[in-house]
Amino acid sequence: MNEPVQLHPELVPAPGDNALGRAASAAGTDRTEARALSAADVEAIVRARRAARLTGLILPLAITLGTAALMLAWLPRMPDPSATHWGPAGEPDGFGPPWLNPVLIPGTALLLTAMYGISAAQQRGAKPTRWSSGQRLIPAVILSGVVLVAGIGVSASWSQLDASDARATGPILWGLIWSGIAAVAAGVIGFFAQPKLRLDGAEGIETAAMSLAPTEQAVWVREVRASRAFLWVGGASIVLIAALAVPIFFADPAGGWIMLGTLLLLIAVILPMTVFRVRVDGSGIVARSFAGWPRVRVPAADVAEVAVAEVQPFSEFGGWGLRLVPGTTALVMRAGEALVVTRRSGRTFVATVDDADTAAALLRAAATRAVSASPDDPGAAPPALREDDQ
């Protein structure tokens, strides 16, 4: 039978206690630095960043401003009310004030552009670490989305120019088709126009396992909150949709209810992503939203490798919060230090946390113990501490 479980006091800091240095000392970590990028690698990444910024920020912004200027210039020639919604066949079936489309279309395009703009601002001055096709894909997708939105807006306005009644303007199906073709073409060109570059850079810093007695148990807990960039983008999206929902309700109640449903869905997605609690103990690692869901768990016995690395949420994972990309589940609330856990299947779990070194050391110790322990072994890993044992 196991001896009484001991709690590692250094790993659960009291409120206001700066336990970072003491926790690292208690972990007894031995960090192995990864290979640094060469000067040529850094220069290649800098060139790739410039191309990505042109594709995902400068061109979309120019298209957005041009679309807004054109639609505002056409505003005196639009019927009142104007068509604001079209059915499956492209026939107008929703109507509103003439200014609605010139606000909604450029506003949506500007929101897409701002997503990459915030990411580019975060990366300014940051040391390049890695580059892959994912960093080429995201700007191309943003450019494609802006072209699609702008094309739909221009087609919708052009079809109504000088019309006395928006109901008689007919379908805009061909406008939608050509907008889609232009969007796909812009995305493909935007992707292949960027340098084809893959640099893995530093794969992470390996951390030695924490030294624990055979029956000793430790727990490490951190709360991670959304970055300002995430809150700005999420908040701007909510405010934009809420502001548009009010006039749409008066002009087209059905469209207003759709906007309200979209707003509630957006809040339901964004709100649980603002605060997560990450916990490492003898059972493995668990990341859980304050709302209880979503939740990610990696059992200690499923841990193959543990490392600490620097990450960029938007450029590497396409955004903030809980992200699912091929081969990886990532909880990325900010740029910077992250815990990287590789499962035995080869999939990885990435979590941006402070004091990732200590978490990595404890998780490595838990994984080693879980693999070596057997049911008859008195030194087997003790059960995980309950959260109220802290």
Give the gist of this structure.
The protein has nine helices and twelve strands. The protein has 390 residues and is of the alpha+beta class.
What attributes characterize this protein structure?
390 residues, PH-domain like, 17% strand, disordered N terminus, disordered C terminus, DUF1648, transmembrane helix, transmembrane, membrane
Explain this structure to me?
The chain is α+β, with helices and mostly antiparallel strands and 390 residues long. It folds into two domains: 39-200; 203-226 and 274-389, PH-domain like (Roll). 45% of the residues lie in helices and 17% in strands. It has helices at 20-27, 39-73, 100-123, 133-158, 173-192, 228-251, 253-270, 313-317, 356-372; strands spanning 82-86, 92-96, 205-206, 220-225, 275-281, 284-289, 295-299, 303-311, 321-325, 328-332, 336-343, 348-352. The chain has a six-stranded mixed sheet with strand order 3-8-11-12-10-9. Keywords: Membrane, Transmembrane, Transmembrane helix.
How are the elements arranged and paired?
Blueprint: H1 20-27, H2 39-73, E1 82-86, E2 92-96, H3 100-123, H4 133-158, H5 173-192, E3 205-206, E4 220-225, H6 228-251, H7 253-270, E5 275-281, E6 284-289, E7 295-299, E8 303-311, H8 313-317, E9 321-325, E10 328-332, E11 336-343, E12 348-352, H9 356-372
Parallel strand pairs: 10-12
Antiparallel strand pairs: 1-2, 3-8, 4-5, 5-6, 6-7, 8-11, 9-10, 11-12
Helix pairs in contact: 1-9, 2-3, 2-4, 3-4, 3-6, 4-5, 6-7
